[in-house]
């Protein structure tokens, strides 16, 4: 299948990107790795009039550490995240995205700005409490917390004329992490996934965060689970009891392969498994 | 005459020879249909119905025609075809409703994707844009999707003119089966659903048609170039010799390319209309929507036995969803399965009743196994159900009822004559590789961790080597063709050999196995044997590749032609060396005189004599080649025993096949490596159906699984490595004793997997499940079982 | 008439300058513009991997890359990985172990396999299977594909692997990738 016609530009500065977006109007779209956008365009489910390619803009790719944060350039491909073990949960999650070829091209910024609740990285952004830098014309810049970034299905807080340039992921040194993803085939999107980070002290859960993928029109934090586990011993029973609350406040869409009920059940199971992996009571699958 | 041809004196047949086919394919030098282009070539894109059932009110192509690069937009009446697409099965004495089926719809569309117009233009991309600018007004008609619903009174009619959605009824077997069942100690009944699937070769279909000066050349990704030529001649009103059909490298078929497709006629008609070459390449989405589907049968299986586990009768009532049209072999597919619905077992009585049904879905037709996977599935799943009912080990039930090997050739309760078999032998071999008791011990240990391990078996026999014309042809089963195969063996002046086969292999490796067969017989290396096929302009008339026939029918034709060449070679040697032809034998690569091994000639020397014609007797006919046609006396019946071990995560319902062991018997191996490869692929195909793949239409007839995102072909990450072994029981039908193996894995594997899952879940009280065993379906069964326990 | 863009590609070591529509997919640029028909199209949704090529040394699906995105990039296709006279070890192993039947998925499988071995010269069977999760085959059940890649890895470890011509593609180890990540 073939995309409909569009115009294309690949500016080499951010200012030129902003100018191109302004010229292109509301049907102009940014292009990063293209692995969210191009499939939709090929199926003619998206028809941008102009693609503004970020590939020539310098400084948008790579991972550095400063002040307790990993600063990840928005154009950093998933494969780099996957192989940067220091990123902990983010590396773990990135390694499960689609397949190696997709991970070579798809970027963190592209994935997050697309706002697909079935994508792997958004929930990881919620639990790491990452912050996204959005820049716009005239040197304007704002920072959006992950929780504010994801608005609705395929809808994020990235405004027209804004470019996500960087993702700051707190390092969470000393936290355990786990990711449990359920899909039919390794290459598929998550039917449901849960990610967890756990801070333990003397076998007790000092703090915990749990994120859910594909359980609503946006990624979610499983706050009931977090509240139930915080202060509890990090043992299988306590984890299981807390995980039972994972479906609270979710609104999963049914599809061909899973009814909402089944997804709620999977959320509980995946949450327990992610927590167990994070707490070290069970190896990750 | 036995060959002993290489430097070690060992025959080529039986060796794991790497394939002659491979060097171009591993270096990107293959030539598939879309890799062919011609000067002046135009591209076609097809406008397809988004409605499952509707009248076409109007088609407005004016905007599309205005687009740059568009040469024409054509609709049904523009094509000037003389006849509709064919259905080649006309069973004698059976009433069948056969609707007209045109390459472009005429007034009515009957499934999503039914083509209504074709856009032809200069560039691959431009025609896709233009197709979106063809505006078709539809008047929707009521839709029927479920085959059993379609048979109810008052159901919407797919084809109004027939007054019913029933296509036909067809039965095989004894009238007394219900009485036999009534007398049986134990009778069970199961409703076995074999859901709809897609063939999904990785190369979608493609067609390139070139019409010039009254000659038509069609390059097409097909398994049956000769059929396509014949039907193009009929549809276009052309004389057959003016048409050449070429199947170049074909990227897999699996039955999906055993068809006369509308797009093949469409491209040919448009090329003729515009006097320009026209290429059409199917998208994957189109493939899922309009390349024929497979399976889609619902069977009620009633099976009886004595208390001590002797099978008595089996009665199968089968509703086959044939979709909206009858394509090449659509209604024949369940019948093909019926022939082996008694499996490997002895029965007092057996009967199969088939009802074909129209629905607003694309037609079903042959997909790898074509009826036989369905037959084996319903039988082998029900065998396990019966074993459970009797409290017998499922293998013990099978053993007590296998047709013993000394009874072959064995006539079955359905009247087939199985050529050869040793069912105890393959099962015994299987159990050398896998110990069910050990698997059960492992299962005990795993259960505490929430992993339920199970083992399942399938002992199958199938029918292939399509087909003896006297049985399968017009007066027999009713296929409107002979089903023989042809070969031409040509020895060149240098002694190199070209073999032309009427089969049309597309990945099976027959270039190599045919070369091995010929090399042994002519005392040369397989490297000196070129095998050509898939082109109606070279070699004799042929019939193509399907039904695991290429070796057992096509290969036999090659043997026959080779023997004719050898006869002549012997006469030449006899003349030159002054001996009697009957004293000439092949020894160490030379045709030599019995008793005087130093007196002999190589094939090259013989060919030299044949073509140079120096010193030959008067009246000698020059040349060294022969053509032969082979029409088998009977089908061949490969068989085997398979075991699957699965782990079920009962919390999520996810099933993983952790071990798969297959012992197959397809007669003596020509190239064991190729047999293993066929079995591997077949198993994966059936595991795909059992666990992952399903074509699903919603109630409005919209296709939900229209891409590889939703239609879940398993990847390497979902499958284990397979363990394979063979026994070799020669067929008594073929001279080489060979049977066929292209479909065996697919025929055997789905019941083994389903039986394994049920075995795994029996501790939870789950006794029966239908495919596909998707996580949700398994999880729901587990939920219900646990609720049952609680209640 | 839509916009045309000039694109410079270095494909299998040869420079090309193409004038393309922005929407032209890399796979069609390779096949239709450059005549490199070894790279195949098997789906519409980036699932099947038949179109896998190496772009600046990494396996990508060329049906989901615009030709314009590959401007100034280095592309290696199956035709450039090894030649019939000088096969890449993965090609050789596919032949030796019957890792192909119809051959249609094969170029993508080989490119994915070569990509894996360039980063992980000693993969386990499970690692090979996961590295192929983006490539579909209908013929082989993957059994012999996996076997071929494991065998090519062994050849490589014995030092018999030769450097694939013509460009320095696909050789970054996992560590190098990670370094690029943390250091860039």
Describe what you observe in this structure.
The complex is a heterotrimer of chains A (285), B (791) and C (184). By secondary structure, chain A is α+β, with helices and mostly antiparallel strands. Chain A has helices at residues 14-24, 37-42, 78-82, 89-94, 100-105, 108-114, 121-128, 146-149, 223-229, 236-243, 260-279, and strands spanning 7-9, 28-31, 50-53, 63-66, 69-73, 131-136, 140-145, 150-152, 155-156, 163-170, 176-182, 192-201, 204-213, 220-221. Chain A folds into three domains: 7-53, Uridine Diphospho-n-acetylenolpyruvylglucosamine Reductase, domain 2, CATH 3.30.43.10; 63-170, Uridine Diphospho-n-acetylenolpyruvylglucosamine Reductase, domain 3; 176-279, Enolase-like, domain 1 (2-Layer Sandwich), CATH 3.30.390. Chain A contains eleven helices and 14 strands. In chain A, the strands form four sheets. Chain A has a five-stranded antiparallel sheet with strand order 4-5-10-6-7. Chain A has a four-stranded antiparallel sheet with strand order 11-12-13-14, sandwiched between helices. Chain A has a three-stranded parallel sheet with strand order 1-3-2, covered by helices on one side. In chain A, helix 2 (37-42) links the parallel strand 2 and strand 3 (50-53). Chain B has 791 residues and is α+β, with helices and mostly antiparallel strands. In chain B, the strands form seven sheets. Chain B has a seven-stranded mixed sheet, sandwiched between helices. In chain B, strands 7-15-14-13-8 form a five-stranded mixed sheet, with helices on both faces. Chain B has a four-stranded mixed sheet with strand order 18-26-27-28, sandwiched between helices. Chain C has helices at 26-33, 78-81, 89-96, 106-119, 125-131, 143-157, 174-183, and strands at residues 5-11, 14-20, 52-55, 58-61, 73-76. In chain C, strand 1 (5-11) and strand 2 form a beta hairpin. The termini of chain C are far apart.
């Amino acid at each position: 299948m073939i995309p409909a016609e569009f115009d294309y530009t690949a500016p080499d500065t951010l200012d030129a990107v902003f100018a191109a977006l302004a010229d292109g109007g509301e049907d102009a779209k940014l292009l990063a790795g293209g692995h969210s956008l191009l499939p939709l365009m090929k199926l003619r489910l998206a028809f941008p009039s102009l693609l503004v390619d970020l590939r020539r803009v310098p400084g948008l790719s790579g991972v550095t550490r400063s002040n307790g944060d990993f600063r990840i350039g928005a154009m950093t491909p998933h494969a780099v995240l996957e192989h940067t073990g220091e990123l902990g949960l983010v590396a773990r999650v990135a390694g499960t995205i689609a397949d190696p070829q997709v991970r070579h091209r798809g970027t963190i910024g592209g994935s997050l700005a697309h706002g697909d609740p079935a994508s792997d990285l958004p929930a990881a952004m919620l639990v790491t409490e990452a912050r996204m830098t959005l820049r716009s014309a005239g040197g304007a810049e704002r920072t959006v917390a992950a929780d504010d970034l994801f608005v609705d299905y395929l809808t994020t807080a990235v405004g027209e004329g804004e470019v996500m340039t960087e993702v700051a992921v707190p390092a969470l040194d000393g936290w355990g992490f786990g990711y449990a993803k359920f899909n039919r085939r390794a290459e598929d999107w998550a039917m449901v996934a849960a990610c967890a980070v756990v801070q333990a002290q003397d076998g007790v859960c000092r703090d915990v965060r749990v994120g859910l993928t594909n359980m609503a029109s946006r990624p979610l934090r499983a706050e009931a689970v977090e509240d139930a586990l915080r202060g509890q011993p990090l043992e299988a029973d306590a984890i299981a009891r807390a995980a039972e609350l994972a479906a609270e406040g979710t609104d999963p869409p049914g599809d061909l392969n899973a009814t909402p009920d089944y997804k709620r059940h999977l959320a509980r199971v995946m949450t327990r498994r992610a927590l167990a992996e994070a707490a070290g009571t069970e190896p990750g699958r | 005459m036995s060959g002993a041809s290489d430097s070690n004196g060992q025959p080529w047949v039986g060796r794991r020879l790497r394939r002659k086919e491979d060097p171009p394919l591993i270096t990107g030098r293959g030539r598939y249909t879309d890799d062919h282009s011609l000067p002046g070539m135009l591209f076609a894109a097809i406008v397809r119905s988004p409605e499952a059932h509707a009248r076409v009110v109007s088609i407005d192509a004016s905007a599309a025609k205005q687009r740059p690069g568009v040469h024409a937009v054509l609709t049904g009446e523009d094509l000037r075809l003389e006849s509709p697409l064919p259905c080649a099965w006309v069973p004698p004495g059976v009433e069948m409703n056969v609707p007209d089926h045109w390459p472009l719809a005429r007034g009515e569309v009957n499934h999503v994707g039914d083509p209504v117009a074709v856009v032809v233009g200069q560039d691959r991309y431009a025609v896709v844009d233009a197709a979106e600018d063809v505006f078709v007004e539809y008047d929707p008609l009521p839709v029927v999707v479920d085959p059993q619903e379609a048979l109810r009174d008052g159901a919407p009619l797919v084809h109004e003119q027939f007054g019913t959605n029933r296509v036909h009824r067809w039965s095989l077997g004894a009238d007394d089966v219900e009485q036999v069942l009534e007398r049986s100690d134990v009778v069970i009944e199961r409703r076995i659903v074999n859901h709809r699937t897609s063939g999904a070769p990785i190369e979608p279909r493609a067609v390139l048609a070139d019409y010039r000066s009254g000659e038509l050349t069609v390059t097409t990704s097909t398994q049956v170039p000769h059929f396509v030529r014949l039907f193009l001649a009929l549809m276009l009103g052309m004389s057959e010799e003016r048409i050449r059909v070429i199947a170049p490298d074909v990227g897999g078929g699996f039955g999906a390319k055993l068809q006369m497709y509308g797009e093949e006629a469409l491209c040919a008609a448009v090329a003729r209309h515009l006097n320009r070459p026209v290429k059409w390449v199917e998208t994957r989405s189109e493939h899922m929507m309009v390349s024929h589907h497979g399976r889609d049968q619902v069977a009620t299986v009633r099976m009886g036995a004595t208390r001590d586990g002797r099978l008595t009768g089996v009665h199968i009532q089968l509703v086959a969803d044939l979709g909206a049209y009858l394509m090449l072999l659509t209604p024949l597919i369940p019948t093909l399965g019926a022939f082996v619905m008694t499996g490997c077992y002895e029965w007092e009585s057996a009967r199969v009743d088939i009802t074909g049904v129209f629905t607003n879905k694309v037609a079903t037709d042959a997909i790898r196994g074509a009826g036989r996977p369905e037959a084996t599935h319903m039988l082998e799943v029900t065998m396990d159900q019966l074993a459970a009912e009797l409290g017998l080990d499922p293998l013990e039930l099978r053993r007590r009822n296998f047709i013993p090997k000394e009874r072959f050739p064995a006539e079955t309760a359905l009247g087939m004559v199985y050529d050869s078999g040793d069912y105890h032998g393959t099962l015994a071999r299987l159990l050398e590789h896998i110990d069910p008791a050990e698997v059960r011990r492992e299962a005990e240990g795993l259960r505490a961790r929430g992993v339920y391990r199970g083992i399942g078996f399938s002992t199958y026999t199938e029918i292939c080597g399509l087909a003896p014309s006297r049985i399968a042809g017009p007066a027999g089963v009713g296929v409107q063709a002979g089903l023989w195969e042809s070969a031409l063996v040509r020895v060149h002046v240098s002694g190199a050999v070209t073999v032309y086969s009427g089969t049309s292999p597309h990945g099976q490796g027959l270039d190599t196995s045919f070369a091995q067969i010929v090399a042994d017989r002519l005392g040369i290396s397989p490297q000196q044997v070129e095998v050509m096929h898939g082109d109606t302009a070279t070699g004799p008339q042929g019939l193509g590749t399907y039904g695991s026939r290429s070796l057992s029918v096509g290969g036999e034709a090659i043997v026959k032609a080779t023997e004719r060449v050898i006869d002549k070679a012997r006469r030449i040697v006899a003349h030159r060396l002054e001996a009697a032809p009957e004293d000439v034998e092949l020894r160490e690569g030379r045709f030599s005189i019995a008793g005087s091994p130093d007196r002999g000639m190589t094939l090259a020397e013989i060919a030299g004599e044949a073509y140079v014609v120096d010193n030959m007797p008067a009246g000698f006919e020059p040349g060294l080649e022969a053509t032969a046609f082979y029409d088998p006396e009977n089908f061949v019946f490969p068989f085997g025993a398979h075991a699957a071990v699965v782990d079920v995560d009962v919390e999520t319902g996810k099933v993983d096949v952790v071990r798969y062991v297959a012992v197959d018997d397809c007669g003596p191996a020509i190239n064991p490596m190729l047999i293993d490869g066929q079995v591997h692929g077949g198993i994966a195909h059936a595991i795909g159906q059992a666990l992952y793949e399903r074509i699903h239409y919603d109630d409005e007839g919209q296709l939900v699984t229209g891409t590889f995102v939703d239609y879940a072909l398993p990847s390497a990450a979902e499958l284990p490595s397979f363990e394979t072994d063979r026994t070799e029981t020669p067929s008594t039908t073929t001279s080489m004793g060979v049977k066929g193996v292209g479909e065996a894995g697919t025929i055997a594997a789905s019941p083994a997997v389903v039986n394994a899952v049920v075995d795994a879940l029996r501790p939870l009280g789950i006794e029966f499940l239908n495919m596909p065993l998707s996580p949700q379906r398994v999880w729901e069964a587990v939920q219900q079982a646990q609720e049952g326990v609680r209640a | 008439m839509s916009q045309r863009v000039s694109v410079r590609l270095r494909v299998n070591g040869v420079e090309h300058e193409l004038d393309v529509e922005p929407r032209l997919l890399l796979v069609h640029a390779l096949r239709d513009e450059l005549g490199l028909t070894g790279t195949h199209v098997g789906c519409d949704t980036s699932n099947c991997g038949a179109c896998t090529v190496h772009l600046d040394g990494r396996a990508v699906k060329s049906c989901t890359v615009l030709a314009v995105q590959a401007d100034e990039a280095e592309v290696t296709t199956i035709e450039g990985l090894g030649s019939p006279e000088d096969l890449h070890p993965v090609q050789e192993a596919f032949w030796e172990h019957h890792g192909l039947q119809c051959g249609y998925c094969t170029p993508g499988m080989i490119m994915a396999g070569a990509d894996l071995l360039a980063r992980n010269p000693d993969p386990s069977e499970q690692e090979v299977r996961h590295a192929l999760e983006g490539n579909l085959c209908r013929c082989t059940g993957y059994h012999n594909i996996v076997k071929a890649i494991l065998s090519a890895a062994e050849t490589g470890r014995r030092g018999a692997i030769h450097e694939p011509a013509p460009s320095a593609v696909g050789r970054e180890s996992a560590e190098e990738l990670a370094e690029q990540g943390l250091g860039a």
